[in-house]
Amino acid sequence: MNRKTIITCAVTGNLTKKEQHPGLPITPSEIAASALEAADAGAAIVHLHARDPQTGLGCMNLDTYIEIVERIEKCNREVIINLTTGEGGRFVPSPGEPRVAGPGTTLATPLARTAHISKIRPEICTLDLNTMWSGQAAVVNSPQSVADMAEQIYAANTLPEIEIFDSGDIALLHDLIARKIIKTPVMVQLVLGVRFGAQATPDTMMYLVRQLPANAIWSAFGIGRMEFPMVAQSYLLGGHVRVGMEDNLHIARGRLTKGNGELVERAKTIVQSLGGEIASPQEAREMLSITAA
Q1: 3-state secondary structure of 217
Q2: What are the beta bridge partners of residue 5?
Q3: What percent of the chain has pLDDT over 70?
Q4: Structural domain boundaries enclosing 146
Q5: What is the secondary structure of 14-40 as a DSSP string?
Q6: Span 155-181, mean pLDDT?
Q7: Which of 25, 160, 185, 282 could cross-link 30 (Cys pair, CB 3.0–4.6 Å)?
């Protein structure tokens, strides 16, 4: 516990709906403003998805990503930007003909899924290793697709944050490291509480942490009501933490959060109440060995 704790804020995601929270950031200006609010509250990293301002759905539009990032950067905050590459990985089987992609399918090539990374060259981006069910959609990340995306990410001088949804993803991670596709030390995010993935319990987190590569720099988070319990559990096991409206919309049972800033403030309070200190963006860069392009 002698190191500082990095707080990541996942600002909006791609699945949460405005109907669930009227303050959910959707437009580039809303997403940027909410990211800056999270940074002011203590988040060293902001994890960003782009949304179609008309439909509210997650999108892969390059201009939208550029606008979000430019709005944040012009405010001269030190916050680290972490862009998703998760869009483009969903397959929905058509009823009666499961080989045919149905409505909601977003499957795209590795180059398409990393095009904004190659252009914007953020300090961090996510790299999902999961192939699993998410509601009625199958999330598909083949080993070759992951390898191709990793190549593009490293070429942009961007640090991949490896997203782990279950223990099999860690087996794939070890294979990618052995084949020198993923570089070490690796940055890992443990995703807990997705319905058909690793569950948000202390036992699950402890098991996953024990399987991680040596010297992995890891963080973990829980979905929904398990967000704050997993903040405490991750800190106690030596990990970093993540909160945000992508993962949870409530500050307490039955009470919607005011926004991402309030969620970050609660995470900071939990870590500090357990004796921890919060890392600044520059301290997070040093821990993650992030270097300038």
Answers
A1: strand
A2: 278
A3: 99
A4: 7-288
A5: SS--TTT-TT---SHHHHHHHHHHHHH
A6: 98
A7: 25
Residue 5 per-residue DSSP state = B
Number of domains the chain contains:
1
Kindly write down the DSSP assignment for every residue of 67-81, as one continuous string.
Answer: HHHHHHHTTT--PEE
Look at the block and give the residue holding tokens 């981006």.
125
1 assigned to some structural domain: no
Structural domain contains residue 2:
no
Residue 171 domain-assigned (yes or no): yes
The CATH number covering residue 20 comes to 3.20.20.70
Q: Cα dist. 16→24, 80, 109, 121 in Å?
A: 8, 23, 24, 26
Name the residue among 159, 168, 103 with its Cα closest to residue 141: 168
Average pLDDT over residues 209-219: 97
pLDDT of residue 249: 98
Nearest to 16 by CA among 284, 282, 289, 260: 260
What number of CA atoms fall less than 13 Å from residue 73's CA on the CB side?
A: 12
Antiparallel, parallel or unpaired: β 80-83 and 124-128: parallel
State residue 293's pLDDT score: 54
pLDDT digits (tens, 9 = 90+) for 35-92: 999 999 999 999 999 999 999 999 999 999 999 999 999 998 899 999 999 999 999 9
Is the pTM higher than 0.90? yes
From residue 178, give the alpha-carbon distance in Å to each of 167, 174, 175, 181.
17, 6, 5, 8
Longest Cα–Cα distance of the chain, Å, equals: 56
Residue 254 lies in a domain: yes
The residue with tokens 């669930």 is 20
